[in-house]
């Protein structure tokens, strides 16, 4: 049972309008946003931040951003966000081989060295204490420019917020996210956990 009950999608008209963004991303408005509506300023600010972070202004694709989100969520253990991130990666055109082998991104041939650097950056930046160091900086600068690195860290930071929010809230996970979690992550033990 969630810590706070999500409100109806129509509770706040501005949030409802902004939340249409998630129909493309996930196919539904996430319960996390419906919980944030208890303070509409938070739900609106979050959606606008999400839209800004996920905008593509360089070579970091929408699919890679969602895989960065998955690695970050996996590092923190948020099962809700793991399922949402892998679902969004699928919806934004991640290669089937990458979706099926996301756990093995460091060694699987479907991932490029540039993608591995981005995903390792996500892992290192999501750890507590933070593990970003000169080695990952060098690897990032081999493949990515500063604006693209900012985009990546935007995703990692956004999901740091979401991981804390959803694990603390015990946000009820939506059926579509459960399907994606089971399909792509289930073979490695993914389950809903507290997000029932």
UniProtKB/TrEMBL annotation:
SUPFAM superfamilies: AhpD-like (SSF69118). It comes from Sediminicola luteus. PANTHER family: CARBOXYMUCONOLACTONE DECARBOXYLASE-LIKE DOMAIN-CONTAINING PROTEIN (PTHR35446:SF2), SI:CH211-175M2.5 (PTHR35446). Residues 40-120 form the Carboxymuconolactone decarboxylase-like domain. It comes from the Bacteria. Gene3D superfamilies: AhpD-like. This is Carboxymuconolactone decarboxylase family protein. The lineage of its organism: Bacteria, Pseudomonadati, Bacteroidota, Flavobacteriia, Flavobacteriales.
């Amino acid at each position: 049972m969630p810590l706070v009950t999500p409100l109806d999608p129509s509770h706040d008209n501005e949030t409802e309008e902004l939340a249409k963004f998630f129909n493309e991303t996930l196919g539904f408005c996430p319960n996390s946003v419906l919980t944030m509506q208890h303070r509409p300023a938070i739900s609106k600010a979050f959606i606008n931040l999400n839209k800004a972070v996920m905008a593509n202004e360089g070579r970091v694709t929408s699919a890679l951003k969602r895989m960065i989100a998955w690695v970050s969520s996996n590092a923190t253990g948020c099962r809700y966000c793991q399922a949402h991130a892998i679902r969004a990666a699928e919806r934004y055109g991640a290669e089937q081989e990458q979706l099926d082998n996301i756990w093995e991104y460091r060694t699987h041939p479907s991932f490029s060295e540039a993608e591995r650097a981005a995903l390792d950056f996500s892992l290192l930046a999501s750890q507590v204490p933070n593990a970003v160091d000169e080695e990952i900086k060098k690897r990032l600068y081999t493949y990515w420019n500063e604006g693209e690195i900012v985009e990546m860290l935007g995703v990692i930071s956004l999901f740091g917020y979401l991981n804390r929010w959803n694990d603390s809230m015990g946000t009820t996970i939506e059926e579509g996210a459960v399907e994606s979690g089971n399909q792509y992550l289930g073979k490695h033990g993914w389950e809903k956990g507290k997000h029932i």
